[in-house]
Design a protein that fits this description.
The chain has 109 residues and is mainly beta. The chain has 2 helices and 6 strands; from the N terminus they run E-E-E-E-H-H-E-E.
């Protein structure tokens, strides 16, 4: 039973970060994008709803969307790749506004 983060492993421009201790450390990796040349926290859309970067930055992907629920994933590594419907950067999100977007569709939608 792989965690949902495994779906991102080996994808160019995508990095997995494992927490060093803390309450989330046992739940798996958070997903980062390296489209800008450094790790950044992507904006995540879950079934069309934009999630808060502040909320998702430290949440393991398995917590955001358990692998058993994931139907499809779209990855836009850098702002230039983001389709217009996902191109709204979040004010006050700091690096999130300069990062890419990950769109997750689940079977429960």
């Amino acid at each position: 039973a792989m965690a949902s983060e495994e779906l991102f492993r080996g994808v160019p421009g995508v990095g997995l970060v494992y927490p060093q201790g803390g309450i989330n450390s046992f739940q798996g990796a958070t997903v980062r994008l390296v489209g800008t040349g450094q790790y950044c926290t992507p904006t995540i859309y879950l079934d069309g709803t934009r999630l808060s970067v502040e909320m998702t930055a430290s949440l393991p992907m398995e917590v955001i969307a358990p692998k058993s629920t994931i139907d499809a994933i779209e990855i836009y590594r850098r702002p230039a790749e983001i389709p217009v419907e996902y191109g709204m950067t979040q004010p006050g999100s700091g690096q999130g506004g300069n990062c890419g977007v990950i769109v997750i569709w689940t079977r429960t939608r």
